[in-house]
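Homework help board

Subject: predicted structure for assignment chain

Our instructor gave us this sequence and asked us to write out the predicted structure in token form, then describe one feature. I got the tokens but I'm not sure how to describe them. Can anyone check?
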Amino acid sequence: MPEGHLIHRYARDQHAALAGRVLAVSSPQGRLDVGPYDGRRLRAVEAYGKHLLYHVDDAPALHVHLGMRGLFLRHDGPAVPPRKGVRLRLARAGVAYDLIAPLRCEPLPDDAERALRASLGPDPLRADADGEDAVRRLAVARGAVGAALLDQAVWAGLGNAWRAELLFLAGLDPDARAVGPAPARRLWELAVRHLALGRDAGQVVSDPAAPDERWVYKRPTCRRCGAGVRAWPLGGRTAYACPVDQPAV
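My token output:
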């Protein structure tokens, strides 16, 4: 599943290319009523966690969640014919974005948009994120810290790769419970820094000196010390940790 850094990258790039323009909006797949959006001005593209919100004049927000398989393709103009499976095309002269296989692509009335925002915790990549609230939410979360980091109501935007790498950088065992404010603040600061690097690079960056490498995520051995990486189910996904650098409490 695309994690928050890629969602913010999509939002940044599409906002730069499309915001302020009147767009041709279509659904080649035929699964979205584009009437409220076609031929209207796109004001902004916003990312919140793993969600994209398109704000269009005189229309409900258009909500996109990519899920596990969703992606965007960018074309140099609308003359490129879309694939039959394209759920949404956003186009103007010189650029077109095609949305393929999203989990959600739907109008979001004001009350539903408010409910979505209320359901999400702070997003490390948003300028309006409340760091103290983020620390509090994680510090009081019940259960394992590795499960809490995947809960979008605790922090928005993190997925399995970031969970593994951030917990490694913080030296925390994913099974640790009641981590407290100091480790929670350290994790938040790491998330703010590294997700921004990932957004700019278009990939998970947990080591700026070796941006294509991971410390423990899907590795047989820890890249730092060489110990065998532990892998086990946690929070519905496979957790990864180094038994040396992330000792069990």
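Reply (TA_rk): Your tokens look well-formed. For the description, you could write something like this. The chain has two domains: 4-119, 131-241. That's the kind of observation they're looking for.
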